[in-house]
Amino acid sequence: MKSIIVLGAGLVGGVMAKDLSSFCEVTCADINEENLRKVALNSKVKTVKGDLTHHDTIRKLVDDFDLVVGALPGFMGFHALHSVISAGKNIVDISFFPEDPFLLDDLAKKNRVTAVTDCGVAPGMSNMILGYHHKKMKVESFECLVGGLPVKRTWPYEYKVVFSAVDVIEEYKRPARMIENGKMVVKTALSEPEFVDFDNVGTLEAFNTDGLRSVMRTMNDIPNMKERTLRYPGHIEYMHVLRETGFFDTTPVRIGNSDIRPIDFTAKLLFPLWKLKEGEEDFTVMRITVKGTEKKNEVTYVYNLLDYYDRKNKVTSMARTTGYTCTSVAQMMLEGKFNRKGICPPEYLGENEKCFNLVLEYLKKRKVVYDVSRKEG
Fold first, then answer.
1. 265-292 pLDDT, tens per residue?
2. Hey, which CATH number is domain 125-308, 3.30.360.10, 3.30.830.10, 3.65.10.10, 3.40.50.150?
């Protein structure tokens, strides 16, 4: 039987490890013993404790496995990816690090490694959808609206997170790149707020974030592309105030005898407020709109996703929509159905119709369903 090691045993990494154990042998690595205990509970997943900030530790850990799945915080992701590629191991990764993964493209090709990056929901599934249509039509515009939110709105932030609070804060401070009329433009994160209505959800607020990532390079013939994050109305005003006051800054500030980065202090305070409690329910909402010309007809494709917390298995929606996208690709790679060498953002899988349909089928079996509509004119 094929074997996989999952680097990271957090809320998403642990869910992926358990899902993967249904069709292969799985080991999950983390430095947090409590996270490892939760992953091992009532599952076939083996666990190993290790400090994944060290290059040599990762190289030794991955040596005996057929495939690696990366589920680390963004600030650790790029260096972990480098370690895995250096070890000559294929990897599917969801760590969403800020660095350019193509900096490792030559190394991956030299080592004959397939490295699928950003393989979550958005980026991830959003890229695959764009890649699929880019192959079949002349795309004129692409818009992705996406957000993960708690079902119960709790003052003051009306927001909960299932991954690193620092990674969320990065979304609120990193300049948002998008394509307008064939040119890349850079806008401030949290800018251009807009109310958007969603069936069975209500009104949410959309704002600019830097979510296009690799498609600006790989799909650079598309004249208009943007990604916007969704939150309950009012949330972004709080984030504006914190950011402009300096709470998201990374330059250390002297307080007494200590130098403290404001972003670390902020994350420490916010995470207890943002952390989902045991059994607390969340949902993921996404709307992707692709417009262009197909067989000389003007067409619009709209993909809608509305996914909820899995009460039976106690799995968050964000872990389901992100994690199962990644595990679907992991299964394909184990079965030799995708083996392109080098850095492979998810749009490369979307361009392969067979791979794209396999991902949709895999997700549907786990009740993560994308509703698709097509309109001409």
1. 998 999 889 988 888 999 999 999 999 9
2. 3.30.360.10
